[in-house]
Design goal:
180 residues, alpha+beta, Aminopeptidase, 8-stranded mixed sheet, 4 helices, 24% helix, 36% strand
């Protein structure tokens, strides 16, 4: 059975990379600007409307009050550069949805997403006792598809024209990994 959410969340660490609980101060930093960056939001559902500090603050408060979302800030050398989460946590079926956002596009391709994801998957499987973790991404998001496969996720299917991005319907590719 999935454990009840700890408040605050534990800190997960790998050398210079740290996953820590999102805090209200994050809403006043660079975080809101990431969701207004066309490169950062190119393949996800964000970017359609301007993202404000107030929206970020509301999100942080919401995830910290939720028992179905475990959202972490990704810090590299003490700088908040992204967010990563297990969301839609389903305790009955012992599964959750994986999501990651590297907010600084100059950090792409530097193995940060992989390192952060490994920490989160270990937390999900070993602490939360999840059985299955899944994710979905735009058919055009090659970086996320490569990350999922590198982490051991397997492609399960495709949701046809499931997301509308910049006026165009795109397919969502679904991946999952099960414990062991």
């Amino acid at each position: 059975m999935i454990k009840v959410k700890q408040t605050p969340l534990p800190t997960l660490q790998d050398k210079d990379l740290k996953l820590r609980a999102l805090v209200e101060d994050d809403a006043y930093g660079a975080y809101p600007s990431w969701l207004n960056n066309k490169e950062v939001t190119k393949y996800n559902s964000h970017g359609a409307i301007p993202y404000t500090k107030e929206m970020a603050l509301q999100y942080v408060k919401g995830v910290n009050d939720s028992n179905s979302i475990y959202a972490f800030a990704i810090e590299l050398d003490g700088e908040h550069i992204g967010n990563i989460s297990l969301q839609n946590v389903n305790s009955k079926d012992e599964n959750a949805e994986f999501a990651i956002l590297i907010g600084r596009d100059d950090m792409y391709g530097k193995n940060i997403g992989f390192r952060a994801s490994k920490l989160l998957l270990e937390f999900g499987f070993n602490v939360l006792k999840l059985h299955r973790i899944y994710c979905g991404t735009s058919e055009f998001n090659n970086g996320m598809q490569k990350l999922a496969l590198k982490l051991g996720f397997k492609q399960e299917g495709v949701k046809k024209e499931a997301m509308k991005k910049d006026g165009v319907f795109v397919d969502i590719v679904i991946y999952a990994i099960v414990k062991n």
